[in-house]
Amino acid sequence: MTSTEDVSWPVTTDRLSFRPSTAADAAAFFAYRRLPEVSEWLPRTSPDGAGVAARFEDEEFRRRTFVIEVDGRVVGDLYLHVSDSWSQAEAGDAPQQAEIGWALDPAYQGRGLALEAVRALIGLCFGELGLRRVFATTFADNTGSWRLMERVGMRREAHTVRDALHRERGWLDGYTYALLADEWADEWAARE
After folding, report:
1. CB of 177 within 8 A of CB of 146?
2. What is the C-alpha separation between 33 and 38, in angstroms, rounded?
3. Does residue 130 sit in helix, strand or coil?
4. DSSP string covering 27-71, please?
5. How far apart are CA 57 and CA 29, in angstroms?
6. What is the pLDDT, as a whole number, of residue 93?
7. End-to-end CA distance of the chain
8. What pLDDT score was predicted for residue 185?
9. Helices 143-151 and 113-126: crossing angle, nearest 10°?
10. For residue 46, what are the CA distances in angstroms to 14, 26, 51, 113, 140?
11. What single-letter DSSP state applies at residue 89?
């Protein structure tokens, strides 16, 4: 399965759950994403709640955006974009991969919730969705993001030099991290 439409929602862990976003989540999403410590690293910001509400009207946006809830309160979001892997035409269909991302309300940071949510998202990718690879990108200066990638077992695959234009800092280096399904399975087997 590679469609999130057939997933048993919500996905739950010991302390949180996540589910597909709805238009009703726009205000909560905007409340933490507008904060400077969050918006600094986001690929896109909206100057007001109306702009965010308009994005939540877009079905494609909602299909890729999942809200993280703790005790019924939206505290963050996850991004998931499933795509085909690059392949030569003669090789046939390429097994699918996904780009993932995340943002968390600063009031809920420092508790391991982002780690827990991203692990659950990766588990969904390799489990129920049957993907073979997940990857994530970040500005090299966003140490919190790439450290989280390392904590979930992802490996740095690329360090690009001044390839990403930050809205305030100018051209910055970037990192790409990835993880394969068999690596994930090996890590979880080693924990048992």
Report:
1. yes
2. 6
3. coil
4. HHHHHHHTSHHHHTT-S---SSHHHHHHHHT-HHHHHHEEEEEET
5. 13
6. 74
7. 26
8. 86
9. 50
10. 32, 11, 6, 25, 23
11. G
pLDDT of residue 85: 85
Q: How far apart are CA 56 and CA 182, in angstroms?
A: 35
Domains and CATH numbers, the chain: 4-191 (3.40.630.30)
pLDDT, mean of each 10-residue run, the chain (192 residues): 82 97 96 94 88 92 96 97 86 84 97 97 95 97 97 97 95 98 80 56
Residue by residue, what is the 3-state secondary structure of 16-32? CEEEECCHHHHHHHHHH
- Residue 86: CB atoms within 10 Å: 8
Check residue 118 and give its pLDDT: 98
Structural tokens at position 53: 């509400």
Structure-token match 């410590």, residue found: 37
pTM, two decimals, is 0.93
